[in-house]
Amino acid sequence: MQLKHLLLIAIVGLTAACSSNKEVVDENLSEVELYQQAQTDLDNHSYTSATAKLKALESRYPFGRYADQAQLELIYANYKNAEPEAAKSAAERFIRLHPQHPNVDYAYYLKGLTSFDQDRGIVARFLPLDMTKRDPGAARDSYNEFAQLTSRYPNSRYAPDAKQRMIYLRNLLAAYEIHVAHYYITRQAYVAAANRGRYVVENFQETPAVGDGLAVMTEAYQHLHLDDLADTSLQTLKYNYPDHPSLKDGQFVPLKEEADDRSWLSKATLGLIEGNDAPPPPSESRANQELAKQYQDAKDNIPRELRPADEGGTADDAPADTDAPKPHRSWFSRLTFGLFD
Questions:
Q1: Beta-carbon-side half-sphere exposure of residue 195 (alpha carbons within 13 Å)
Q2: What are the Basic and acidic residues biased-composition ranges (predicted)?
Q3: Residues with Cβ < 8 Å from 196, sequence gap 6 or more?
Q4: Is-contact 138 115, C-beta < 8 A?
């Protein structure tokens, strides 16, 4: 069975599961019974059922002894039930309602953990996807949320794990910037590539991507013919990262060579056709050259008696004689109805 069929079956199964009827919680259950049943569901990994009971507990007994604990465990149940938006919403609500709660650091931690795992869905777990090439929005959110936890509660029991995840996320975000810079180089957007490389060097120190950022800056500056900046970046790269893959025997090897702007016909004929023509400037196309040539040819064909005196002609400022013979029109002038005369 092909992979696309397996993915289709998984999507259909998830859709059917999500469209099932919500569990109805018995209205006669007491606060203690609701909490105990929710705990049992959590132990049995029945997170949907646990979520329903925790919501019922919070709504029926908002000032009970288990209300605060139910709000905390609702964050966890939503997180384990793969409902990241619901989990983050529950965490933000708990932080807003209980900013001085002794376990508020747990809400911060779960909020960051939810964003950390948000991009790691079913497909990402079973397919070898490069996380550094994906949208870094959730990773950036997770880094900021873990940063809030470690700055506000440095002695929290969750701070060490949050710091380790922040290191990973920082490396991930830096690698993503390098991927974007490489894309800009392939598209010949060298200014944008240099800016991305400089951003990595300035904002992601002590990450493995700093050397890549220097290599990107070197290559982009070389393409832009900014020799001083390119040499400075290259010397910094050689001094700090002598074993970088872009350095071969001490010489810099660019990711992309100078662009070959020859036409496909010139490349196919090894330059025999259009081989003697100099490549046009970036702002001048072949069509513009042809139009300019046709204009000059038409100008050269104007009879001498019709040219101005400053161009070697004999015409004066008097109105032209209507009986004078009309100049011969070129085929291009006739074809374009005189628009380019």
A1: 5
A2: 296-310
A3: 177, 178, 180, 181, 184, 213, 216
A4: yes
**Alpha carbon distance 16, 206 (integer Å):** 47
- Total Cβ atoms within 10 A of residue 291: 13
CA distance 69 to 128: 38
Number of H helices, E strands in the chain: 15, 2
**Is the separation of the CB atoms in 204 and 173 below 8 Å?**
yes
**243-278 pLDDT per residue, tens:** 999 998 888 988 766 545 555 555 555 455 554 444
Measure the CA–CA gap between 306 and 316, rounded to whole angstroms: 9
CA distance 199 to 193: 10
- Neighbouring C-beta atoms of residue 320, cutoff 10 Å: 10
How far apart CA 54 and CA 91 sit, in angstroms, is: 14
The tokens for 117 are 């795992």
Using an 8 Å Cβ cutoff, are 73 and 67 in contact? Answer: no
Two tokens, residue 101: 């709660």
User: What is d(CA 143, CA 172) in angstroms, rounded to the nearest whole number?
Assistant: 10
Q: Which residue has the higher pLDDT, 211 or 321?
A: 211
DSSP codes joined into one string, 186-215: HTT-HHHHHHHHHHHHHH-TTSTHHHHHHH
Query: Could you tell me which of 208, 206, 245 has the C-alpha nearest to residue 218?
Result: 245
**Per-residue confidence band for 32, with pLDDT thresholds at 50, 70 and 90:** confident
From 280, 278, 226, 222, select the one nearest 252 (Cα to Cα).
Answer: 222
- How many other β-carbons are positioned within 10 Å of the β-carbon of residue 16? 9
Contact 101, 68 (CB under 8 A): yes
- Please state, as a whole number, how many other Cβ atoms lie within 10 Å of the Cβ of residue 236: 16
Token duo for residue 152:
């506000």
> Among 58-72, 112-126, 179-193, 327-341, which stretch is predicted with the lowest mean pLDDT?
327-341
CA-derived radius of gyration, the chain: 35
Q: pTM for the complete prediction?
A: 0.64
**Collapsing DSSP states into helix, strand and coil, what is residue 257?**
coil
Q: Which residue has the tokens 């690698």?
A: 175
